[in-house]
Design brief:
Layout (H helix, E strand, L loop, with lengths): L1 H16 L4 H18 L1 H15 L5 H23 L6 H5 L2 E4 L1 H7 L6 E5 L5 H12 L3 E4 L5 H11 L5 E4 L3 H10 L3 E5 L10 E5 L2 E5 L2 H9 L2 E9 L5 E5 L13 H22 L33 H8 L4
Parallel strand pairs: 1-9, 2-5, 2-8, 3-4, 3-5
Antiparallel strand pairs: 6-7, 8-9
Helix pairs in contact: 2-4, 3-4, 10-11
Length: 323
């Protein structure tokens, strides 16, 4: 019953707010985000703590608090954007975005190898995926299934507006492997904490962060191009959808597979850090990015015997039926 009420409330708010001009909807979302910042003590403290861990003495207490509030306000606006999106066509979505690096993506496409778009919870990645589907044709989006099945269904409808397919993480590995072999595009986010058994530790804001190696592993195993992609909010309220240069995986061919996976994952994570540092208020600081720690040592530059690789490649091969 609680989940049905949550869904009904969200739908009602969306229906009412959709009658407002977009500028007012975003302003309302930022206001609601600010309210949550003040009232949601748990996530406020997690956010401020994450910022403190990332920036250390680079930012004062007041600056960390201000950045945390700005992040809440941004994601309030993003939530209202998605909640009031309705079922827009291509032209309506194009009014919200501009593309940067279309040629990089086009050159990376290969009908036999596919493309892995590596993105993060930055800006408005959901709008990016929709716009990508309209411009280039449908792609496959790896996502985590929401606990509320009714809200999950609504989010799935939004994600499929331009023909994209949603692959839930529980079944993702075998499907993504096969899709890449067929030359399709798969979008994967790698900026969230993962469990120790699934993690490799790479540097992120000067700290060791438990990160999934799956994008690097898939690229090495399938030959798919590996492109970092980002949605950058602009002062006008639009989004710049950026496709960066593909990662040169051949540069790591002299390394062992485990070493290459670690190096590529580090490169991807460093690119994400560079983008986040430019406008940090647009990243999802509410997530406990540094929650999983290495087995020994604190993972912050002190001596440690933490793993730099995991059993992920072996288990991945088993999942896709390779020897």
């Amino acid at each position: 019953m609680k989940r049905i009420l949550e869904t009904s409330l969200a739908a009602s708010i969306g229906w009412l707010a959709r009658r407002l001009p977009r500028r007012m909807r975003l302003a309302l979302g930022r206001y609601v985000g600010g309210l949550f910042f003040r009232r949601d003590k748990k996530h406020r403290e997690v956010t401020i703590d994450n910022i403190g861990r990332a920036y250390g003495t680079e930012k004062t207490k007041a600056e960390r608090t201000a950045l945390a509030e700005a992040a809440f306000r941004h994601f309030g606006a993003m939530f209202f954007e998605l909640l009031t999106l309705g079922r827009p066509g291509k032209d309506k979505i194009y009014e919200l975005v501009e593309f940067d690096g279309v040629d990089r993506y086009e050159e990376a496409r290969d009908p036999e190898k596919g493309v892995i778009l590596v993105t993060s919870h930055y800006g408005n990645w959901e709008i990016h995926a929709i716009a990508h589907g309209f411009l280039f044709g449908p792609m496959n989006v790896v996502a985590r299934e929401q606990e509320n099945p009714y809200l999950n269904r609504r989010l799935e409808e939004v994600r499929m507006l331009s023909g994209n397919k949603v692959i839930y993480k529980a079944q993702a590995l075998r499907q993504t492997y096969s899709l890449l072999k067929e030359g399709e595009t798969v979008a994967i986010v790698i900026d969230q904490n993962v469990h120790l058994k699934d993690a490799i530790f790479v540097d992120f804001f000067g700290r060791k962060a438990a990160t999934t190696p799956i994008a690097a592993w898939l690229a090495l195993r399938t030959g798919a191009a590996l492109l970092p992609a980002f949605s950058i909010p602009l002062p006008t309220g639009r989004y710049r959808l950026v496709y960066e240069e593909p990662i040169d995986c051949d540069a790591y061919s002299h390394l062992s597979q485990d070493e290459a996976i670690h190096a590529i994952t580090q490169e991807l994570t460093s690119i994400q850090e560079r983008v986040i540092r430019e406008q940090p208020e647009f990243w999802l600081w509410m997530h406990r990015r540094f929650r999983t720690r290495p087995r020994t040592g604190d993972g912050d530059g002190k001596p440690s015997t933490a793993r730099t690789t995991t059993d992920a490649p072996a288990s991945a091969k088993a999942a896709v039926g390779e020897p």
